[in-house]
């Protein structure tokens, strides 16, 4: 009998969680005046924090479950962006150079994050404030991205490093022809 009750409660809470995710995304869409494509892939939902009005994502792109994006410094995501679950993006940082207190003061340092077109990011990736990711970049799962990443780079690690490049001629040919998934 206990298992039946847990099963019923699980279904009820699952429906409530799905409803909360939908309402949250509709709220974000109203604040940013844009469509946000969300793909459920396990638990977690989507959380945009800070100044949500500074968040931009192309209509052809999507976000997945477990995504957290701090938007106060500005976050711009280009066309045909694909990500795995668990993406984290920060666009602000603490002021560790404070002369008033440690480990940091209450000053928030805002640094915009820009992600180009046709970028593929694996699961559980963290992107630091001020990062610019070029077109056609592939980021391996679990990477932590600092600094600017040039077009067509394939990166992995913590901190993420370039391990090789896509064939740029093929990439730009497919891109120009509009062959997107």
Protein topology:
Blueprint: H1 2-32, E1 37-39, E2 46-49, E3 55-57, E4 62-64, E5 67-70, E6 75-77, E7 82-83, E8 88-89, E9 92-94, E10 108-110, E11 113-115, E12 120-121, E13 126-127, E14 132-133, E15 138-139, E16 144-145, E17 153-157, E18 160-165, H2 168-177
Parallel strand pairs: 1-4, 2-5, 3-6, 5-8, 6-11, 7-12, 8-13, 11-14, 12-15, 13-16, 15-17
Antiparallel strand pairs: 9-10, 17-18
What does this structure look like?
- It is a single chain.
- The chain has a five-stranded parallel sheet. The protein has a five-stranded mixed sheet with strand order 7-12-15-17-18, with no helix packed on it.
- The chain has one domain (2-177): UDP N-Acetylglucosamine Acyltransferase, domain 1 (3 Solenoid).
- The chain is of the alpha/beta class.
- A hairpin with a 2-residue loop joins strand 17 and strand 18.
- The chain has two helices and 18 strands.
- The mean pLDDT is 93.
- The radius of gyration is 19 Å
Helical percentage: 10-25%
**Count of β-strands:** 18
Number of domains: 1
Count of helices?
2
Considering the chains and any ligands shown, give keywords for the structure.
23% helix; 181 residues; globular; alpha/beta; five-stranded mixed sheet; UDP N-Acetylglucosamine Acyltransferase, domain 1
């Amino acid at each position: 009998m206990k298992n039946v009750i847990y099963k019923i409660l699980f279904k009820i809470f699952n429906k409530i969680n799905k409803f909360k995710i939908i309402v949250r995304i509709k709220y974000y869409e109203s604040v940013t005046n844009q469509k946000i494509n969300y793909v459920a892939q396990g638990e977690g939902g989507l959380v945009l924090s800070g100044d949500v009005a500074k968040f931009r994502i192309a209509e052809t792109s999507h976000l997945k479950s477990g995504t957290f994006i701090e938007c106060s410094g500005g976050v711009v995501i280009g066309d045909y962006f694909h990500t795995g679950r668990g993406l984290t993006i920060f666009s602000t940082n603490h002021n560790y150079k404070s002369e008033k207190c440690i480990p940091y003061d209450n000053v928030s340092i805002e640094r915009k994050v820009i992600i180009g077109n046709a970028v593929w990011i694996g699961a559980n990736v963290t992107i630091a404030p001020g990062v610019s990711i070029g077109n056609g970049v592939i980021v391996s799962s679990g990477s932590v991205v600092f600094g600017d990443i040039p077009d067509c780079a394939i990166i992995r690690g913590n901190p993420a490093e370039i391990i090789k490049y896509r064939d740029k001629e093929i990439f730009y040919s497919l891109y120009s022809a509009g062959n997107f998934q």
